Amino acid sequence: MKKHPMLKYMKETGPQGDRMPMIMCPGCGSGQVLNAILHAVDRLIQEDGARKENFVFITGVGCSARLTSHYLNFDSGWTIHGRTLAIATGALLANPELRIIVITGDGDTGAIGGNHFIHVCRRNLDLTIVCINNGLYGMTGGQVAPTTETGISTTTTPYGNTEESFDLCRLAEAAGAPFVARWTTAHPHQTIRTLTKGIRKKGTAFIEILSQCPVHKKQSPVQMLKALKQGTARVKPGEPPVEGKIPIGEFCNLDKPEWIQSYQKVLDQFSNHRTPVEV
Amino acid sequence: MNTRNLLEPGVYYLQGAQACLEGAITAGCRVYGGYPITPATEIMEHAALRLPQVGGRFIQMEDEIASACVLLGSSWAGEKAMTATSSPGFSLMQEAISYGIMSETPMVIVDVQRPGPGQGYITTSQEDVMQARWGHHGEGSAIAIAPASVQEMYDFTIEAFNLSERWRSPVLIMCEENVAHMRERLIVPPLDTITVINRKKPQDLGIPPETYLPWGHDVVAPMANWGEGYNINYIGLVHLEDGNITKYDLAMHDRCVRRLHDKIEGNVDAIAKLETKFVETCKHLIVCYGSVSRTAIEAVVEARQVRGIDIGFLRLKTLWPFPEEQLRRILPPVDTVFVPEMNLGMMKHPIAEALRDRCRKIVPIPCLASLHTPEYILAKIDEEIR
Amino acid sequence: MNRLHINPKYCKGCLICVDVCPKKALKPAEKINAKGYILPEEDDMSRCTGCGLCEVMCPDFAIAIETEDQQER
Prior knowledge:
- The structure holds 3 protein chains of 3 kinds.
- Chain A is α/β, with parallel strands linked by helices.
- In chain A, 33% of the residues lie in helices and 16% in strands.
- An 8-stranded mixed sheet of chain A has the order 2-1-3-4-6-5-8-7, with helices on both faces.
- Chain B is 37% helix and 20% strand.
- Chain B has helices at 16-26, 41-53, 64-76, 87-92, 94-102, 129-134, 150-167, 177-181, 250-265, 268-271, 292-305, 324-330, 348-355, 374-385, and strands spanning 10-15, 29-34, 57-60, 80-86, 107-113, 143-145, 170-176, 183-188, 233-234, 274-277, 284-289, 311-316, 318-320, 336-341, 361-366.
- A 7-stranded mixed sheet of chain B has the order 3-2-4-5-7-6-13, sandwiched between helices. Chain B has a 5-stranded mixed sheet with strand order 10-12-11-14-15, with helices on both faces. In chain B, strands 1-8 form a two-stranded antiparallel sheet.
- Chain C is an alpha+beta fold.
- Chain C has a single domain (3-72), classed as Alpha-Beta Plaits, CATH 3.30.70.
- Chain C has helices at residues 16-20, 53-57, 68-72; strands at 3-6, 26-28, 40-42, 63-66.
- The longest helix of chain C is centred in the first third of the chain and has 5 residues, at 16-20.
- Chains in contact: A-B, A-C.
- At the A-B interface, strand 2, helix 2, helix 4 and helix 9 of A face strand 1, strand 2, helix 2, helix 3 and helix 5 of B.
């Protein structure tokens, strides 16, 4: 039987082979995002000659985080809720050759990880953040998230959400990320293209993927994908959003000094300098 | 050992904070992520200056949580890393320490203790010594050591890195504000006489990725770095030696957590260090740690030579794992055990557990927010014994 | 004719592939399988152009299309 082409990057057998089938609910968008990421990584390996050993996947906690729970035949880390970006910062400072892909959720990025999120964008560290945004906390049972729209009923907003929600892409742009984009799980080819660009980009690439949670939203995945397609409209950089539709597309792609490159100037200049401490 | 731009052998006059960082880079620390907090900031500022000079990288992070997490990522990517904080920041780092224990990550955290609770004050204290053992959630221990001088800030920091690499464990340097701020002589020996231990790697043992068990092969598993093709998945959940988390049952959970516990607590004799004087046949005893041991020894010498009190001295250089068996092995039964601490009585608890049945009375000598003077300790000894 | 491969061990019957196929080459099975899922199956694979949209949309890596070229090799 022919296998799915991306299974070559996943662990199916061996000590961790019992991880398949994937733990996600049927029709969950997370698996689609992983599918797209692996397609992008495959392109980089085939086209750019990128070394597979250099890729590292880091996740936090939540449904998005499960994607590293032994499915991947890469170096990875299933780490602390919200702190993936701080951990990624440490790894990059230790080995700038690593190509770090951080997979997070809307809660992991926008709530508990918010502080680290804005600082990584500000610092412009060379890594890729893929934020799977399903508008709620899935793993813990469907609570409200900073990205839940006003009025929506969740287990912690049973009377309807009274708060405004974050636009994580605008937050990333305002914080200084040079490459910011948003697609949905209903836009696989665009997602793969943008992910490839984002991972190639020298600097912080923030790519938000609106994704379906069929279980907590109590709709079929097919229905939700249709809604994602119809509820969004592509905009080019600088264009205003279309009325009533969530803007999707690549919002910015700037050239800015990247953190390791900037710090290298310090290393080049001062690594032969010795602070006098003799007495 | 790459000795480029390290402190060369000689005599220096340095602040404890500076000596600590110099020890770290001598031990091979090349990544530092920190956050300002009094009274630990000087360590970070010295790191900002010196890391580039030795080819390392420094970053000031947005909070203490991020600083501790930098250590995890850096260690997994193959570079020794350190951060320094004070008590409120130490509280913030506990989750990362807990994760470091479960993932068996070598990392070094300096806690320059100040009084609490809350913001407390910015003078000296020993109020975090229990937190060092029990502050992280869950079972498992980190190693905690207590330097008392500028020389020890250099030496103990090198030892901390060696312990963290040898045992694949977070190591906490439980310093005090006065030790970090004092200026004293530091003697740097010839660098080739300094032992620097690096983690064992599967490559060194001829173990290929296909048969590598990230948490197996030995009591302390060899550790591959990210980027070397070993496809390691670092996790915080209870796991089997190969990293599997699915085959869960209570027996596996018990085995996993006990293994972590026993790795440190079961190797106390190899890990814990202490120092004794006059204990062969003493009638009373002082047990102390950190900078208090410097005034305690003064008090002991004065008590013995001038006041005729037969009192011995035991200094814990390692706080955790607590060397209960060692204490019982080397100490004779005594009348009174004095425990001077810059808190209201914390290490007195494991000390009492160890010695309660071999002494008549245990007398804490608390002193908050400042270092005991020898007179202060002697007054208490006099009060009790006479 | 392109050949459809569904891995019944991995597939969770979300039927996204059936919906997304531009040529409607797939259809849901009539009976649920032992796990309680309705798996996709061929409706008419002569309609399949090998566009790969089903592969790229599958959340479970459970589907593969074997093109005629690949069959000949």
